[in-house]
Amino acid sequence: MPADLARPRTAADVRELVELACLAPSVHNTQPWIWQDQGDGLHLIADRSRLLAVEDPDGRELVISCGAALHHLQTAAASLGWSAAVERLPPGCDPDVLAVIRLTRAEPSPTARTDLALLRMRCTDRRRFTSWPLPAEHVENLAAGARVWGAHAEAVTDAVARFRVELLAGRAHALAEHNPYAADEQATWVGRDGTDGIPRAVLPTADGALPGSRFAVDDGDAAALVRHGDGVVVLGGDADEPSAWLRTGEALSALWLRATHAGLSVVPLSQPVEVAATRAELRDVLLGGRFVPHLLVRIGWQAIGRSDLPRTPRRPVEEVLRG
Q: Can you tell me where the transmembrane regions are (predicted)?
């Protein structure tokens, strides 16, 4: 066995992997995860202190966020010469232990250089998409890549189905807009400085103001999020519970990295799922009961490159990695 494959992992190895994993997207950039390096492996733990109690009382979006970080870690591990065996929601552990990852030395993946670049390049670009249409086959391919990770993913390409999504997005936005507690919760995370949350500099309004809509995209018209040539994918699972949410998060990360490689932007659209009435209609009418929706994502082209877009901050590794 070559010497490099025989070398045991070090604290520096774990730190590098966690640093890359934490580049994952999370709801309101809350970064709701803790990583703990223990004898049986690296534990991914849900940080409930970062739960959005009003918008996400069940923790669906928190766990999806952790699932995205889990996929980021697996991608980083394969690129850096590690085989990552993942046990999701291991029995006998605290329920907040979402996964245990056991690392062994391996050859780096053939796409290592590209994958590491994509991890560092991926970002949430909330600026308005162009009107250039996104071909349906592109959306279908992204959905197919997401399904590899154990989640359901359905591309919404039919005109009638897209119209229904528009109606549901608009209805969810209208219902949420009248909830002052949700607005107060958003205000604690959006438009703030520091190592978490969403800075005003990355918001799509020119002055970083926060009108009543979710991040003020398209002049507050939530239905406009899925108009024109945008692609829409519904992610979900067989149930509305943590093991399925975790898989949806992994699928979200896989879809996002694949879209980034294709030069596309991805923006999650969670409001239709956060509102119980629109979530049920998504499941029963749009999806015909085939699976439970956990998240919608819109995908499109940006006229301006990402290089000039400020990145959302990240918590120091020392805050999220425990020995």
A: none
Output DSSP code: residue 275: S
Contacting residues for 161 by C-beta, under 8 A, at least 6 apart: 286
32 Cβ contact list (under 8 Å, min separation 6): 26, 46, 47, 48, 50, 51, 62, 65, 66
pLDDT for 117-138, tens place per residue? 999 999 998 877 888 889 999 9
CATH T-level topology, domain 3-122: NADH Oxidase (3.40.109)
Q: What is the pLDDT of residues 23-76, one digit of tens each?
A: 999 999 999 999 999 978 999 999 999 999 999 999 999 999 999 999 999 999
| C-alpha–C-alpha distance, residues 144 and 163, integer Å | 23
169 contacts 222 by C-beta, under 8 angstroms: yes
Task: State pLDDT tens for residues 221-244.
Answer: 444 555 556 899 999 999 999 999
Q: Which CATH class is domain 136-308?
A: alpha beta
CA-angle at 138, arms to 229 and 220, nearest 5°:
30
**Whether the Cβ atoms of residue 47 and residue 32 lie closer than 8 Å to each other:** yes
Place of tokens 């002052």: 180
How many CB atoms are closer than 10 A to CB 79? 22
Domain ranges of the chain: 3-122, 136-308
**Joined tokens for residue 124:** 């949430």
Please spell the DSSP secondary structure of 176-212, one letter per residue.
HHT-HHHHHHHHHHBS--SSSSB-GGGSSSTT----S
Distance separating alpha carbons of residues 151 and 86, to the nearest angstrom: 16
Place of tokens 């995205």: 68
User: Residue type at 181?
Assistant: Y
Are 204 and 128 in contact by the 8 Å Cβ rule? The answer is yes
Q: How many CB atoms lie within 10 A of CB 148?
A: 12
What residues form DSSP beta bridges with 101? 42, 86
